[in-house]
Amino acid sequence: MIHILQIGFSHNPGGVENCIMNYYRHIDKTKFSFDFLDLYGEGIAYRKEIITLGGKVIVLPNYKKYPITAAKKLYWLIKNSDYKIVHIHMQSAANLMPILAAIKSEKVKIIAHSHSSNTPKGLLRKSLNRVNIPIIRKLKIEKWACGYKAGLWMWGKSFDKCNIMENALEYENYKYNLTIRKRIRNECGFPESAKVIGFIGRFGAEKNIFFLIKVLKELVQLSSDFRLLTVGGNDLYNAFWDKLLEEGLKQYYYSAGIQGDTSYWYQAMDAFLLPSFFEGFPMVGVEAQATGVYCYFSHNISRETDLSGLVKYLPIGKNDEKIWANTIYSDLKNEKGIAKSNFPQEYKIDIATIRLEEKYKRLI
After folding, report:
1. What is d(CA 167, CA 19) in angstroms, rounded to the nearest whole number?
2. What is the per-residue pLDDT across 319-344, written as a single tens digit (0 to 9) for each?
3. pTM
């Protein structure tokens, strides 16, 4: 049995959490076991399911409040457990404590896994990342990433593409289903003629969410059939709602809030928008392409994310919402339903899980 400690889950069911849970649901549990660390003592997403699947959730004192105590407890946990691998999921290099605690234990293989291509918001985090990047690149650890751009950003030009772990998913849960599409669109109150643009994710500053309102405003001037559907919340959601009201767009908007299972919601969409300032390899982009909706991504997102031929990369500068609106309007005006997706095999979770199992085995 290969016992693995997963570090990097938050209380929010975001891209990292969804990706790793996809693998955990399918990995051979007679050969691999996962435990999950709650680094901040705030609870982690999918806790009940993790326990149901046989995993443990280990809670540390809040690292932000008690950094020394948390670091010591993590060191002793790794030192005195039978973990073979510590797999650390990182949005930046701002916090090296889990890596250093694992190194000090002198008994595990360490995977540092980059899930981003830029530092999330915050001066302190950006400063720490800048200082720590040269340090982490010199450490004798496994240097993984969700995609090539995320790998280059964290690990530099020496990053090996063999160390990409695909953001794979359960394809059958996402592929186009007309029955589900009708049910969700009815639930949202969309008219049959509606052209639905959608966004799924946390309302973080890096997602450039207010750009969605600008695009919607342009689209409804072209056709009153357009609607915006969002799934997610937290962070800037309240400010987003206030801006939407200010622009008089309430009647064109539906919020599904935070959902544990987002697969159904893509079915209601005709187009998926991701105008982010930066991304690593967005899980939601993979999911949208599995469903087969047209995808419109910020030009800051790596071209490697086009897995299906359905993605267009558009600028997000001043007045560029007009480009998005005109492109979307042109693409959707004669379309009925969802486009067909040519989805790659390596992003289907059953195949990807076998590849991950082999990677873990090779490490030990």
Report:
1. 6
2. 999 999 999 999 998 776 566 668 89
3. 0.91
